[in-house]
């Protein structure tokens, strides 16, 4: 299956589906963290309370993702979108965090981080519930990259957000649509 970025409409439907689950706050947070920060599902599922909350319980707007939790084994800074910050504020009262090292996104028994395979299953089910076919959790990361590009971010910045070593890898993430190509061609001035 070829993973593609979500359209704005699909992203809205996915968030609506996440908001209608038994664990709506957690599921919405999972989707937003991946879709707005460019996190891989495994990176998101490995997060601790201290990644997103300081010692006083205030939401952080950015945090460092240490190398051992990334696919590339390279640490990187993660910046949180205002919608993810809002979701964290909504999630905090639902979860009574025991300690800074506690899992941010707990599994069913509440003692451990949700496993990345479970995170993938959750997102896949949410996509089905939202009527999004033939896609995977990795689409959230591609959606982040594509939306950054469409907002005018340059490739080097997108590469940094995604934590890629190669610019060529970043380019493969970007969903270029026919109307964008036509617009670019039409904008040429002679």
**Could you give the count of β-strands?**
2
Oligomer: single chain
Number of helices: 10
- For CATH, the homologous superfamily of the largest domain is named as Intergrase catalytic core
| Name of the CATH first level of the largest domain | Mainly Alpha
Mean pLDDT score, rounded? 86
β-strand amount: under 5%
**Molecular shape:** globular
Write out the strand line-up for the largest beta sheet, numbering strands in chain order. 1-2
Structural class: mainly alpha
Q: Any idea how many domains?
A: 2
Main beta-sheet strand count, sense and barrel state: 2 strands, antiparallel
Brief account:
With 190 residues, the protein is mainly alpha-helical.
Describe this structure in words.
The protein has 190 residues and is mainly alpha-helical. It folds into 2 domains: 8-140, hpI Integrase, Chain A (Orthogonal Bundle), CATH 1.10.443; 142-186, no CATH class. Helices cover 52% and strands 4% of the residues. It has helices at 8-18, 24-37, 41-45, 49-52, 82-94, 116-129, 138-150, 155-162, 167-173, 178-186; strands at residues 62-65, 76-79. Strands 1-2 form a two-stranded antiparallel sheet.
